[in-house]
Design brief:
The complex is a heterodimer.
Chain A: H1 4-18, H2 37-56, H3 75-101, H4 108-124, H5 130-152, H6 157-177, E1 189-190, H7 206-229, H8 231-241, H9 243-248, H10 253-279, E2 281-282, H11 289-302, H12 307-328, H13 338-344, H14 347-361, H15 365-379
Antiparallel strand pairs in A: 1-2
Helix pairs in contact in A: 3-7, 3-10, 3-11, 3-12, 4-5, 4-10, 5-10, 7-8, 7-10, 8-10, 11-12, 11-15, 12-15
Chain B: H1 2-32, H2 39-56, H3 63-90, H4 97-119, E1 124-125, H5 130-133, E2 135-138, E3 141-144, H6 145-167, H7 169-179, H8 181-186, H9 191-217, E4 219-220, H10 224-238, H11 244-264, H12 269-284
Antiparallel strand pairs in B: 1-4, 2-3
Helix pairs in contact in B: 1-6, 1-9, 1-10, 1-11, 2-3, 2-4, 2-9, 2-10, 3-9, 6-7, 10-11, 11-12
The chains are: A mainly alpha, B mainly alpha.
């Protein structure tokens, strides 16, 4: 059981069970299931329609009581939505590793934080102009991913998870210690306002930050789609489904996994850059193991191995984390004993329990569950 | 010279704590292949159980007496939590390793959040016996007494676990299970019951680690278990994923490296040097990490 090969295949087949393929993975579908004609067109159009609706939101002056703070196009709501979208995009980048390649990495936060911190540091400490700072942040983060990945991928499965966690933790320690005053320790590093365009600064310009976040999601979506449809994407799926078989067929599985890790980390670093721009600085929360674990929770909640799943998981998780606090002070809970109320007032408690429930009863995540319900009603 | 003795003693004490935290993790991983993220939550549970017990006992008692009862309570709570988690959450996901990890991740998030909701996020001070706060002169160095306690407890735990593994029937089943679980099942032995026992044992060790770590830190806080868990993970990986002796050696090495680097390089370098050590072990001997013998 604990022999190395057993262990590897075990890990990978079980991650394969988590994964739900969408229409573009390598696994061939039975002929009956391929969406045809109008349904197919609808599936193609859906992302465009969703994008159009989301892009139009800053022009909607409607109040949605309970769901959003104030009007939809108010700065509070837009900032919340922008944060949700950025984290959704970051979850999408993590899915390249977890859902697409079957790599259980606990170190993804490292690369997101690297993107975020390298941007703020290169803007204020190194005095680089914004385009150069973005390039520097992305380049250095990708290099970091290459080095960390090359070391960590020497082991597989659960050991890989532990090793990536250790690396992420090392980064967290460095950031907290604040070497030379560049990371700002627990306070984080604010964005240098003079170095970024005026359009991205200030309460009035919340719509622009929102569109920036939306733009990042589109980039991540397109990149993941192209990656998954490419030869490399098919190799990643092969490694996820059965690594030994892929190796026997002549694929360099180490190279494939490293490629997946670097590609995912690049998108994650891009997410970190956008995160810093949208939130106006780098927060040490990005480096914590809690953030890394929450990325995993998001992807599994939404549905691993599916773009909609990862994106929705990230958006919903961030939204719930921000808004569940309001629920705890609502009248519904007033009748409960103090201890129960205190526990329920912790968003992470509710999310953690909900996550366990999803792992048990909806292993393909919320989108997988939704897809199953739609298919069932369609066959009737 | 006295500096070195002090560093060695504190490093050894820290290594002892790491070993206590990692031993349960290593046992569970070795036999069941479960990476138990909830181990940190188990530690937190043990620490809070001991803290509550010590607060509930009459203050007229000596602190050491209350601490002993607190340790007993922490160990019992840890074992109980481990038992319940295994039976309710882990067992139905038999052979689904990733899902098992995911469940323990959810549990660790929910557990820490629950503790935070009930007792608040701030650290709460823990009573420490007077003798444990004092120092003893050895070779000109003033060594903190509590480190002796940690080393002693870790030594007893190591000896006890080795005796359990090598002298009892249960230990025989565990060792056989680590070697080849399918064969043990085929021979008609109920491996599932062994799983439950091992998880409860791991939980008990985690509870003990939680109590001792709260003594080391002088306070209990919800996030405490998580920070100790990271080092326990590193120790388990360096020690060879499931080998108890390897875990013990790795714990001592990690504790010593951390203390020495913190002193001779700069404060904070210790934690990083541990990760570097891990990277080095991975680069030089990646195969040793996959083998597992209890």
């Amino acid at each position: 059981m604990t022999s190395p090969t057993d262990h590897l295949t075990d890990t990978h087949t079980s991650s394969g069970e988590v994964a739900v393929d969408d229409d573009d993975t390598a696994a061939p579908r039975p002929a009956g299931q391929r969406p045809q004609g109008r349904a197919h067109l609808l599936q193609r159009l859906l992302p465009v329609v969703v994008l159009a609706v989301l892009a139009y939101l800053p022009y909607v002056p409607v109040e949605v009581p309970g769901l959003l703070p104030g009007r939809v196009n108010g700065p509070g709501s837009l900032q919340l939505l922008a944060t949700c979208l950025v984290v959704g995009g970051i979850a999408l980048s993590y899915d390249v590793l977890f859902g697409r390649t079957g790599l259980l990495s606990f170190g993804h936060a490292l690369f997101v934080a690297a993107g975020s911190y390298l941007l703020t540091i290169s803007l204020s400490t190194w005095d680089l102009p914004l385009p150069l700072a973005v390039l520097a942040a992305l380049g250095l983060s990708t290099l970091l991913a290459l080095v960390v990945g090359a070391v960590a991928l020497r082991v597989g499965g659960i050991a890989f998870a532990m090793v990536t966690l250790a690396f992420a933790q090392a980064a967290s320690i460095i950031v907290m210690r604040n070497p030379g005053g560049v990371t700002g320790g627990e306070e984080g590093r604010p964005l240098d306002r003079d170095a970024v365009p005026d359009l991205l600064v200030g309460v009035v310009n919340a719509p622009y930050r929102y569109w920036l976040a939306l733009g990042f999601v589109v980039v991540a979506w397109v990149a993941v789609t192209l990656l998954v449809r490419s030869r490399a994407g098919h190799a990643m799926a092969a490694v996820r489904e059965n690594e030994q078989r892929a190796a026997v067929l002549g694929l360099g599985t180490y190279r494939v996994r490293l490629l997946a890790l670097v590609a995912g980390s690049f998108l994650g670093a891009l997410g970190g850059v956008v995160h810093a721009l949208v939130l106006g600085g780098s927060n040490p929360h990005l480096t914590t193991s809690e953030f890394t674990l929450s990325l995993l929770v998001m992807v599994v909640l939404g549905g691993a191995g599916s773009r909609w799943g990862a994106l929705l998981g990230g958006v919903l998780y961030t939204y719930a984390d921000a808004r569940l606090v309001e629920v705890s002070s609502s009248a519904v809970l007033q009748g409960l004993p103090d201890v129960v109320r205190q526990v329920l007032s912790q968003p992470l408690f509710i999310l953690g329990v909900f996550f366990i429930v999803v792992v048990y009863f909806a292993p393909s995540g919320l989108t997988g569950l939704g897809g199953r319900l739609i298919r069932r009603s369609g066959s009737r | 010279m006295s500096d070195l003795v002090l560093l060695l003693a504190t490093g050894l004490g820290l290594g002892a704590l790491y070993f206590i935290a990692a031993s349960g993790l290593s046992l569970i991983y070795g036999l069941m292949g479960v990476l138990n993220f909830a181990h940190g939550a188990f530690m937190t549970a043990g620490a809070y159980a001991a803290w509550l017990t010590m607060g509930a006992l009459p203050t007229a008692w000596p602190v050491a007496g209350r601490l002993l009862v607190g340790i007993a309570a922490g160990v019992c709570v840890g074992a109980l939590v481990g038992l319940v988690v295994e039976v309710v959450l882990i067992r139905p996901l038999y052979r689904h390793h990733i899902q098992q990890v995911l469940v323990t991740v959810g549990l660790s998030l929910a557990g820490v959040a629950a503790a935070q909701g009930i007792w608040g996020a701030d650290p709460r001070a823990v009573d420490k016996p007077v003798w444990m706060s004092g120092t003893t002169d050895v070779l000109g160095a003033r060594l903190p007494n509590d480190r002796f306690v940690y080393v002693l407890v870790a030594g007893l735990l190591f000896a006890g676990l080795l005796a359990l593994l090598h002298l009892t029937r249960l230990g025989l089943v565990i060792r056989a299970g680590v070697e080849n679980r399918t064969m043990v099942e085929a021979l008609g032995i109920n491996v599932h019951r062994t799983f439950t026992v091992v998880f409860a044992l791991g939980g008990a060790a985690a509870g003990l680690a939680g109590v001792l770590y709260s003594q080391y830190a002088g306070a209990v806080s919800p996030a405490q278990g998580g920070s100790l868990l990271i080092f326990a993970f590193i120790v388990v990986v360096i020690g060879g994923m499931g080998s108890l002796t390897g875990t013990a050696v790795a714990a001592v090495v990690v504790g010593l490296v951390q203390q020495l680097a913190n002193y001779y390089a700069a404060s904070g370098v210790g934690d990083l040097s541990v990760v570097l050590l891990l990277a080095l072990v991975l680069l030089l001997r990646p195969t040793s990490l996959k083998g597992a013998t209890a």
